[in-house]
Specification:
With 361 residues, the chain is mostly helical. It has three domains: 108 residues, no CATH class; 99 residues, CBS domain Like; 127 residues, no CATH class. Belongs to the chloride channel (TC 2.A.49) family.
Length: 361
Amino acid sequence: MFACWTYGIAVPSGLFVPSLLAGAAYGRICVMFVHYLDFPVGAQDGMFALIGAASMLGGMARMTISLTVIILECTGVIEWGLPIMVSLMAARWVGNSFNEGLYDIHIHLNHLPFLEFDPPYYARFLRALNVMSSPPTCVPQIAKVGEIYDVLKNCNHGGFPVIVPRSQDAAGGGQQPNLSAKRRSPRFSGIINRHHLAVLLQRKDFFVEKPEPFVRIPAGDTTLLYNDQYALSYRDMEGSYPRYPSVSDIQLDEEERGLWMDLTPYMNTTPYTVQEQTPVPRAFRLFRSLGLRHLIVLNRRNEVRGLITRKDLTPAHLKFCLEALSEAEKQRIKGYFHRDRCGSERFEDVEKKLIRINDNW
């Protein structure tokens, strides 16, 4: 109880050792009570204390195999491995029947965007178009220094989609006059991280004249200012890891704000993307299995529609998006229930939720 009260506050406390101590004391009390009743005990008293410590720690952390290995390595009693494993599994099952583990509860209290192994069951009724953050903040692959600086100053995103006008993408010709406005919309070209943009601003990787994209080669150990032939090397870009420069520490004068930046040597031209009609469970598994930070949502014309981050795939955000569906989407989901009467309780819960939403509307 005291461990739960003190966990998370700014004091030099912990959970591991207090749980072991409390569990060992509990096991020792149990074996003393057995001796008091004159029941025959075939095991040593220390085994009861060790099993009690393991069960208390397992009930708090909800871990089985890792704790078994840790306890066996610390004690060196391999012959007690089976009872320790059984006690940890029993503590985990009993604890899960009441609530989540203390670590999981603390994750939810801190509102951390933690993703479970599988998406929620109601995520199958949503698409990437429903959960993405829109409109995204994009940067052109050839941009003014002042524009990049203002984007970093006014936006806290960790990555930015890089776009290029359709007229620049055409090979060997200019912009056609009869194209529609939609077809002239900027095309997705890649993604660049925030700290890379900050490094470019700090290193003054600028151009006096508007440069041509994809023409520079990586530089060596030295970097020249306003150089139109060499790009910054990997050592230049990642040399300040993990303390990348902050945009608040970068100062630019008016002359530098009017210069040009070429992002093509530094952006990721092959990021993971999904179409706007992609089911959310597929995007969820792609995001979690690959450990992504950003997932770009595109339409059929390869235009950026939105950005999916970890917070967009949390259960709370998915529930909010489910409630924000249009009336036509809700009718589509109800039609799915009408066609598929499998009798599953989880589908009935979603149907009741949609009925409650309609009543509120």
